[in-house]
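Quality-control log, excerpt.
Job 1 of 2 completed; input and output follow.
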Amino acid sequence: MTINFKPRRNSGFLGNKYANFLFKNLRSNIINLMRSFSLILLLLLITTSGYSQKMNDDYLIKDTTVSELKLLNFVEVPYYFIMDKALVQFQSNADIKRFSDTMKVELPQMFNEFDPEKNTMAIISYSGIDCHSWFKFEFLKLDDDRSYKIYVTIRSGECRAGGNNYTRWVSVPKLPVGYSLSFIKLIDEHRN
């Protein structure tokens, strides 16, 4: 005995009209889904592309109110070497050269033109709060206190990654006899 089976055209709960509707719109639904996914992927790439703190002054120093403070090149001195002191001051070109040779770091920019009779050279260390931190440097001469002070205000860039450590050469006017030079780090908790 043979049984011939012919599917019915209107089989199923809603019939062929529903199936045709689904398949007809399936292509447009897939294309829309791919467009949405591409847009989300593009947004993720854009928002995660800038999460590293850069080492150039244009990015790090948004507002610098210094006139006699010269911010020179960054150096690769281990941060822990200077961290507790925050500042190492040099009295002569020979001291700078000896430090550079011992620590195997670059000499300061304009080392050949540096005159210890007119300027004082130092190395300062500081670190960012997060990966987009920015820094504002100020230099003050306090005659009452007989001191020169270099201030760095560190402000959050509202990034969740940690900040980098920096060590760099700086030059200030020669300290008068009996004056001291200090480096003070201030944290600005203000959120943009």
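Job 2 of 2 completed; input and output follow.
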Amino acid sequence: MYSQQLRALNQSHQTAARGGFIQNTVSKDIGIRNYLKTRPDLVAPELSPIRTAIFTIIALAGLGFAIYVLTNAEDLIASFEGRRRASVSNISLYVLPPAIAIFGTIGMIWWSRRWRIPGGGKMQTAFMSGFNGVDPNEVWAALESAQSPSDPHLQDVLRRIHRNNTPPTGFDLTIMHSQQDQILVAAVTRSVLKNPNDPNGGMRAQLEREAVVRRGNAYIDFKVAGAEALKNI
């Protein structure tokens, strides 16, 4: 049922795009974090020391456990009683340790990454929500024109996003910022099927328009704006 809803949602978005509902689009098959990769003038990637340390410990623990199991396999298997219990234990002994090591390695490579303003602070998520029923062009315009967190147009758009964020959502608004450097990057992405002919094949993010970048005097705190909108729903 859920996959059918996603397929119908994707088809409706394609029809809307052809009809001019989404205009002046970039249509890059990337989300905001991948968009940041294209902006070395704005941010630089780095590894979080804490996350890297945590995932390194997990990977080493999994590797150490795997080595221990391989070198003591017969004794460990013999310690289990019963045919059924032994078979389940065998699977756990041989599969779980490598899985833990792989999980830790992936975490070190992928989940430990973050973005930092060169010479400044790190980028953090200020606001993130899926939505339906709100024109993404209107969202984009509000992001670009807002003069303060309490801007009436911005607050109206954010409140409607909060009211229309029940899955499956077709669009996502993600805002990342660095308060220290007074800079933000906001993007509206569309959720589309990776394979239009396979509703169970997963989703990907498609950037609809060039992300909004605001810095210096143009910076506004969207974390405050989002909290205010949520409070006034």
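Post-run check on job 2. The longest strand covers residues 183-193.
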